Amino acid sequence: MKKVFGLLGSPVGHSMSPVMHKTAYKRMNLEATYEAFDVAPDQLENAVKGIRALGISGCNVTIPHKVEVMKYLDEIDEEARQIGAVNTIVNVDGYLKGFNTDGRGYIQSLLTVAQNLLDQSILVIGAGGAARAVIAALAAHQPHKIVIANRTEEKAQTLADMFSDTKTSVQASTISKVEEQLEDFSIIINTTSVGMSPHVSDQPISLENLAAGSIVSDLIYNPLETTLLKEAKEKKAHTLNGVGMFVQQGALSIEHWTGHYPDVLPMQEVVLDQLNKSK
Ligand code: ATR
Known about the structure:
Helix content: 25-40%
Largest sheet: 6 strands, mixed
Bound molecules: 2'-monophosphoadenosine-5'-diphosphate
Structural class: alpha/beta
Number of helices: 10
Oligomer: single chain
């Protein structure tokens, strides 16, 4: 019987997940479909009950439901608990378990440009949900240090405090301080929405003191090259946009659902196609 997977979010009209997942299923010869469901916040509990009632095999969860959805599930995986959000639900005979593939998806994407993470000094800009997922996954790889800088400074401190038990030092700083000390960092990651379309000329941090050869990574994929990445490239840094993370988190969801890790290349191609079409 054809399996059904889906996305719970709002809005979901522009989501590239359906076309990306369907492309993967076709390559895997998996008889399955993927539909995006626009779920209002007051309908989330019913939507989750619907997963069980309709026998939907698995769902992705996106904004604004990643945190709220946790209370309606039967079990939360340890990593998702640490991240404090779920983006993947697996349905096994009506028992719903929540996972988070964002952090690991990001690491897999980062490792396409970084040799290893052990010796790296990493700057994370932003202190929201995306930053938390990325930092949790980074900390598991025990880099040399992680520094968080955010517009609202207290939030950077609160997030750093959540990782006080990890082997890696996770500290909070301010945007202006890290701008001055930018040459100390080998990897710089923007997790904020600053620079996202339509505000494409905005930039979360000045790269004036960037060390040549460092990696500058933006979770944004629309535009594919943010102003931050453009400047980083001019300064001879390696750059990474958010497409890889988006594709990898989807691939890891498919692995949770089917036990098989799909070929990510056709998934990436179809996402890039969509992005180029919407330009
Ligand atoms: P997400 O789940 O995508 O991380 P979020 O939890 O709302 O979304 O977090 C958004 C992050 O982007 C925060 O770090 C936010 O900074 P504040 O904590 O100061 O709000 C950051 N952010 C969003 N818009 C910003 C802007 N215009 N300038 C600087 N930082 C911004």
